[in-house]
Amino acid sequence: METMGFFNRLKSKFSKKEEEAKTYKEGMNRTRQSFTEKLNDLVARYRQVDEEFFEELEETLILADVGVTTVMDLIDDLKFEVQRKNIKEPKAMLEVISEKLVEIYYNGEDESISELNFQADGLTVFLVVGVNGVGKTTSIGKLAAQLTKEGKKVVLAAGDTFRAGAIEQLEEWGKRSNAEVIKQAEGSDPAAVIFDAIKAAKSREADVLICDTAGRLQNKVNLMKELEKIHRIIKREVPNAPHEVLLVLDATTGQNALSQAKTFSEVTDVSGIVLTKLDGTAKGGIVIAIKNELNIPVKLVGFGEGIEDLRPFDAHAFVYGLFADLVEE
Amino acid sequence: MAFEGLSSRLQETIKKITGKGKVSEQDVNQMAREIRLALLEADVNFKVVRQFINDIKERAVGQEVMESLTPGQQVIKIVKDELTNLMGGSQSKIAVSDKPPTVIMMTGLQGAGKTTTTGKLANLLRKQYNRKPLLVACDVYRPAAIKQLQTLGKQLNIPVFEMGTEANPVDIAKKALEYAKEEHHDYVIIDTAGRLHVDGELMQELKDMKEAAKPDEIFLVVDAMTGQDAVNVAEQFDKELDITGLILTKLDGDTRGGAALSIKAVTGKPIKFVGMGEKLDQLEEFHPDRMASRILGMGDMLSLIEKAQATIDEKKAKEMEEKMRTMSFTLDDFLEQMEQVKKMGPLDELLSMLPGANKIRGLKNVQFDEKQLKHIEAIILSMTKEERENPQILNASRKRRIAKGSGTTVAQVNRLVKQFNEMKKMMKQMANMQKKGKKGKGFTFPFM
Fold first, then answer.
1. Interface test with A, best of B49, B110, B374 (most A CBs within 10 A)
2. I need a labelling partner for A299 at 20 to 30 A (CA). Which of A53, B7, B41, B367 fits?
3. Residue B310 pLDDT
4. pLDDT band at residue A6 under the 50/70/90 scheme
5. Between chains, do A256 and B255 touch, taking CB under 8 Å as contact?
6. Is B43 within 8 Å of A219 when comparing Cβ atoms?
7. To which CATH superfamily is domain A6-111+322-328 assigned?
8. What architecture (CATH level 2) is domain B4-86?
């Protein structure tokens, strides 16, 4: 029996999870428009799959911020696939490309790599890190709101004691999500705030503690050492913690995201990515490179300003979002 | 430093071609291919890369190079010229209105660094141009954004105009202008909420604000780490608002900053300022030619000299120079030097401006923090006068005493002495270089 095409498989997969498919589809409207438009244009202009076609395909993928190395690997894979399956029609390539993207992303693992890790009973601790301005505090606020809604007791630690207004911003989110915020004065030692917050979370028997940290550029050695200390304290004070170290990435970030993921991992063992601001025209293709080169999966994606716009990541749904028009055809 | 990756890759590429007495078309093609990859990895926009490479190729295989006596050097000059062009050619100054106040509007995506840059810009206007700026808080959406601007205002002692989160940003801007006229402010900087370039409603709000405030400058604040999408964002903002300039932020990261550079090429709008650090005085005017030199590892002596002039006492500097030349430099001078340099800004940033500094072993990953400087200060102050003048006499027992006295460890004392000796060695190199003219060892000036 001829195996079902990848797009058909996607279609049947999401016929049961319509809501999920819809969120991705709508959230990635603009991304899809600019990305698929380019691909469609590409396959329409070529009569056959040749070297020139691959060159333009390479450009399109690089424009989507899929890392240069990953693109080169992908193109090699695709060339091989084209030979194996004897593909001549450029249009048939779209399905191969999307299947390959998912394959590279999962790399033999299954969807559970995207799930957040919670402590079965007792306190779960999430540490949230990233460079300046990616949306750490906002993502924490949204995640907290969702967790409280699920009935969990959430405590937030105001570990960004550096940026003006950061503590107030987290407090505002605390109010909105009904989570208690543990804080100290601006300029105080963030490690001490986290320590306090752990004590508080334990004594209040909270389910989840989410630790905010100040944004820091990954090449600032001293700031990274500060983060290392925070990580160490969490590890020491709570067994199995931190259950997640989430690196927040702005989807508009380019190749530098790889350097961010690498360096933050070195000091804190990053376990997952939160990809924010995907509702613009950015493609966020760099997450594929990050998974491919550093094996760090995406756990959450942000499609907009609303609390519910922060969603669990699903690579199939992501590709569905990218190629929705073709899948549904 | 910013552009580090781009810089080292380009330098490697051009190194291959520098010494060549003959440059064939094949050499140029090979170089072009490598430059292309380096630029792409640095997030420079695809179309910009293509144009850039074509321009270089065209000039490099043309007469300009072939007839030159030093073709290798000539090619590099072309790369530098084109890179300078890419970033805007000459420096572009901030607008001054005939009828004060000059109004500046800050726009951009969320998280680009608008609010922080608003504060930094006000600080720069006051410090370098002797202006009296007013900050206006028009970000009524993000929680605590107003509070953030107020805190910055308090730190800088610059007034902030706000009307809370309930008011309409357009009204706030209008009222702020009236207020500025009454209070005789000559610059008004309006902070706006971050928004996506595709958010019709919020873009309309910016247009309304533009209509109401008639700004002399509309800056698009761009995160230097932005990828290929930077061009889309900038084109859209420019289309809607006709921006007047760009401010690049977070250039102190290890970003290659390429996409941000392409924005200039695509919109034709100049980069006016760059954010070089988290501190409020770390916003600089942008000089395309100097940045191009820095990227190609040719150093940026002009910026360094300007920085030094702005902060260092001339008389003391002369004395110091004399000491460096005659090698009579002591730990006391080291301490004094440290104080002076501390005023100039982070040491790693200063080093990045030195031509060839990135080639000096061990300097690459040097990072100094204030605490470390304090330790050094304590160590030196715990030494006797004799020891400071001649650190050679430091034996184990003296070092133990110093460590105890300064609350540090012997290892730290050792490290300082080593650093001091290395610094002396560096000075010797520099002094030799001055004597011998061009042929300095370790330091190469490609064009001098």
1. B110
2. B41
3. 63
4. confident
5. yes
6. no
7. SRP54, nucleotide-binding domain (1.20.120.140)
8. Up-down Bundle (1.20)
